[in-house]
Design goal:
With about 260 residues, the chain is α/β, with parallel strands linked by helices. It has helices at about 50-55, 80-85, 105-110, 115-125, 145-155, 175-185, 230-250; strands spanning about 10-20, 20-35, 35-40, 60-70, 75, 90, 160-165, 200-205, 215-220, 225-230. Helix content is about 30%, strand content about 25%. The radius of gyration is 18 Å and the shape is globular. The structure holds adenosine-5'-triphosphate and magnesium ion.
Length: about 260
Amino acid sequence: MASEQPDALLQIEDLHVSMGDREILRGVDLTILEGETHVLLGPNGGGKSTLLNTIVGMPGYRITQGRILFKGIDLDDMEIDERTRMGIGIAFQRPPAVRGVKLRRVIDVAAQGQLDDAAIGQLDEELSLGHMLERDVNMGFSGGEAKRSEMAQLLAQMPDLALFDEPESGVDLDNIAVVGAAMNALLKGEGRISERTRAGLIITHTGHILEFVNADVAHVLYNGRLACKGNPLDLIEEISSHGYDACVECKLCQTFS
Ligand SMILES: Nc1ncnc2c1ncn2[C@@H]1O[C@H](COP(=O)(O)OP(=O)(O)OP(=O)(O)O)[C@@H](O)[C@H]1O
Ligand SMILES: [Mg+2]
């Protein structure tokens, strides 16, 4: 029996985003279907974090053209907390520190008070949170601790669309597996697309995290647009061998106009 085509969870159309007087995104088109995991590649300063921060509604990112639809609803003018309640979650590249707010409290808020002590204990075990739970969130956390703290918040929230901004950066080799397992638990990364309910968008430079998380397709953000898409591991290999300039000119890749 033929399975139904999943619905589009996220639709980005001709998105232009400026910070101050600089246009950073210049016409991004991207559709993520329910259950899909996408990867975003691209050179430093290309606008990858800008794209994720704009989707989640961080202040300061000005949409000058185009739109973002989530579950068919235009996110324009929606505040970050509203988008979070609709089912968008993010693990930031450099998560902000918040003095006076304990990580345990943030996890509780992310879960909308739905996690009991046993569930928090399980998160603690999965992500080795330990003393971090009773510390001010991200205050003095090491790079790897901050990433595990971000994962804990996402696992507590269980968003329908999880945005991961360089989840493996600064994480030691042992803990990449821990972070990857948390991402898999969230995305149910095993199995066919149709079996999964949650979707993901992962920024990575090295692709190490993809040893632990299945991804369906990768895009290259270049000159403010998605210049190329293809198999994640193939694209990363292509970029490692030939660089971004050569990659986006590759005639073998499926290119957007
Ligand atoms: N507040 C700001 N004011 C001006 N420019 C900004 C601001 N925030 C970001 N930018 C610029 O926007 C561009 C895109 O930044 P962004 O963080 O999205 O890149 P990135 O692709 O995530 O890079 P990286 O791989 O280094 O994380 C950069 O040139 C950056 O300096
Ligand atoms: Mg970035």
